[in-house]
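Tokens as discussed.
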């Protein structure tokens, strides 16, 4: 290779590689001085000129001792020179040397004897400033101590991304010795990590010089292959003092515990958010089934993949909830929710069905003991204690059920049922924290379920009372065809005091009554029953409708805080006349053949119970074919439309071609009633007919 040819660039290739200025030797500025056998200076390097201040012209040929050493040290210097030249062992140490400017400097020496091809002897002295050398030594010692004792994993890789050095901390982190690192690439040393992204980050740092700090890396190493670890990794480009890029430094900090703590804090926040969400979403109504659905929906997918809410059938049947029991349990399924389609849903009991679970079933144990039952890892043997039947157990196996949790629904110290939770897709088993969270959700929901249960019982009682006080079917009356309906509130939170009645009177006459007691519940139903009885009693007296309402007003007034609206009409088929009086009620609709339906223009009057007001009777011709429609406000009133607009809708539906009275009743209820209506309805339609014989 010619001297003008470039040397190979790769340091591993023979011939060496060029090294620019700025390395450690340049930093130390090591001076080289050669003396002949008499002690004269025969070679003088530029670094020697920098260190001692004399140029080569000033130094060459002169005795080194007389030029560079104070006179008091000459004898010692001559002795050391003779020692080096005689023995060949060399000498190393620190000696005070005289600078050209007259100052004295401590210089670190390495002296050795040289011999040329003619057997002539020379002395080579390598020297550097002691202060600079000690500074470098301290820096190196400090760096070495920091690197070796640091709890942070540290490594240096060269520009080919091969390990140059690693500290003991990184040896422990990676589970490999320093020898197993050095000379190997990241991929060769750590194939179990995502080395592609790590090496890409290093190349980016080498190219740009911009550090990558606190980058999270997750994986397993040979030090602990069974557990996943998390590290915070940073990369910095290393440059020599002359700017030459020499590699990348890497720091690795084990942040597994920090990541776990952060994850646990995030989970805690998520759990609090779930509880807060449950407080808003559960118990929005007093409907038992809706409340159960709300609990099941809140539980997926944050807590479980499949959630079911089952209540003891005895509780729903009005018997007291139990505190503790033994033996089998009979459940009524109220709700099932799933995060995604799954065979586990088919294994659950469909809402509305009743299922018997034997005493060895886990959900039975849950309600019998009033304590949660958790199976973190479900085995094949566990499935038969979770499922109701072998077929259901097979479906759970197909769905890959791997974790199960049941928590009791307890309200006011009584067990109502259970919240049943299953995990099939979520890989994590149910933990103790999950059990606490499920218990919190169940406790909040149980009170709402118990309230809904009691409300359902109270509502059913009121509804039963109300229906028992209404005529089952209006009797056949001379000269009249009659159809009627009663429909309770569809919102399931109201049982009102609406009623209708058809009362036979003397002379083939009939009394038609529709009334509405303000309020709801058993009290309104009971008041309605009293007023219906009083109306029937007064009707037997064959009084004018206005007089009947006058007496009912006095009776209502004596009953206390009760306000009632009422329409009372008496039809005489022989006279083809109808006498009507109104106590604050919505006007009836009159439909004559061939004419548009119309609201009767009656004196409205005040509601019953206001006291000491006058009622008026209106006489109306009612010929065969004419229809009279009496109704309560629940048929037409809504919260988002004006009453006049709703009455217009009523008239529009009554304008349809004549059908049977039964069909007309069904049409009006279907067209005008909506899910969630908060009032009940009484509807009575009478059509005048020709008197027989």
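Sequence:
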């Amino acid at each position: 290779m010619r001297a003008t040819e470039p040397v190979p660039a790769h340091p591993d290739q023979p011939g060496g590689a060029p090294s620019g200025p700025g390395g450690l030797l340049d930093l130390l500025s090591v001076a080289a001085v050669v003396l002949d056998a008499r002690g004269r200076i025969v070679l003088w390097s530029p670094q020697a000129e920098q260190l001692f201040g004399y140029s080569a012209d000033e130094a060459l040929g002169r005795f080194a001792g007389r030029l560079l050493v104070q006179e008091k040290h000459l004898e010692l210097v001559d002795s050391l020179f003779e020692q080096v030249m005689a023995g060949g062992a060399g000498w190393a140490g620190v000696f005070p040397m005289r600078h050209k400017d007259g100052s004295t400097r401590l210089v670190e020496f390495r002296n050795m004897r040289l011999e040329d091809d003619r057997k002539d002897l020379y002395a080579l002295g390598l020297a550097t400033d002691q202060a600079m050398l000690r500074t470098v030594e301290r820096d190196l010692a400090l760096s070495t101590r920091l690197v070796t004792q640091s709890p942070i994993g540290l490594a240096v890789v060269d520009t080919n991304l091969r390990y140059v050095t690693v500290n003991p901390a990184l040896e422990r982190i990676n589970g490999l010795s320093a020898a197993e690192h050095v000379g190997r690439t990241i991929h060769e040393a750590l194939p179990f990590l995502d080395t592609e992204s790590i090496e890409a980050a290093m190349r980016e740092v080498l190219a740009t010089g911009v550090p990558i700090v606190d980058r999270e890396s997750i994986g397993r190493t040979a030090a602990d292959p069974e557990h996943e670890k998390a590290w915070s990794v940073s990369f910095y480009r290393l440059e020599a003092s002359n700017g030459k890029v020499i590699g990348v430094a890497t720091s690795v900090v084990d942040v597994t515990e920090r990541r776990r703590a952060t994850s646990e804090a995030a989970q805690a926040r998520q759990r609090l958010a779930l509880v807060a969400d449950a407080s808003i979403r559960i118990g929005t109504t007093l409907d038992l089934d809706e409340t159960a659905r709300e609990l099941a929906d809140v539980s997926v997918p944050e807590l479980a993949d499949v959630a079911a809410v089952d209540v003891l059938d005895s509780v729903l049947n009005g018997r007291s909830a139990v505190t503790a029991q033994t033996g089998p349990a009979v459940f009524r399924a109220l709700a099932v929710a799933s995060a995604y389609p799954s065979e586990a849903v088919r294994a659950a009991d469909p809402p509305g069905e009743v299922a018997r679970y034997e005493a060895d079933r886990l959900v039975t144990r849950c309600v019998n003991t009033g304590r949660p039952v958790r199976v973190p890892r479900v085995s094949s043997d566990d499935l038969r204690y979770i499922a109701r039947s072998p077929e259901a157990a097979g479906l759970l196996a197909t769905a890959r059920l791997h974790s199960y949790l049941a928590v009791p629904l307890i309200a006011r110290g009584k067990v109502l049922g259970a919240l049943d939770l299953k995990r099939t897709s979520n890989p994590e088993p149910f933990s103790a924290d999950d059990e606490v969270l499920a218990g919190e959700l169940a406790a909040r929901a149980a009170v709402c379920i118990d309230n809904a249960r009691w409300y359902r019982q109270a509502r059913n009682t009121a509804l039963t009372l109300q229906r028992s006080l209404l005529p089952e079917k209006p009797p056949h009356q001379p000269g009249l065809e009659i159809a009627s309906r009663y429909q309770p509130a569809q919102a399931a939170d109201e049982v009102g005091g609406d009623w209708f009645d058809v009362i036979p009177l003397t002379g083939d006459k009939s009394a038609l009554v529709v009334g509405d007691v303000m309020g709801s519940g058993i009290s309104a139903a009971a008041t309605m029953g009293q007023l219906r009885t009083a109306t029937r009693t007064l009707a037997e007296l064959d009084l004018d409708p206005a007089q009947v309402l006058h007496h009912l007003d006095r009776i209502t007034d004596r009953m206390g805080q009760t306000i009632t609206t009422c329409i009372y009409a008496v039809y005489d088929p022989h006279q083809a006349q109808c006498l009507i009086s109104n106590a604050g009620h919505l006007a009836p609709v009159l439909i004559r053949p061939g004419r548009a339906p119309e609201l009767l223009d009656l004196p409205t009057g005040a509601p019953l119970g206001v006291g000491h007001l006058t009622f008026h009777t209106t006489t109306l011709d009612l010929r065969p074919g004419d229809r009279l429609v009496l109704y309560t406000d629940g048929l037409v009133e809504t919260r988002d439309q004006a009453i006049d607009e709703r009455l217009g809708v009523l008239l529009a539906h009554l304008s349809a071609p004549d059908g049977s009275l039964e069909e007309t009743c069904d049409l009006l209820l279907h067209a005008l009633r909506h899910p969630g209506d908060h009032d009940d309805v009484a509807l009575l339609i009478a059509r005048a007919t020709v008197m027989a014989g």
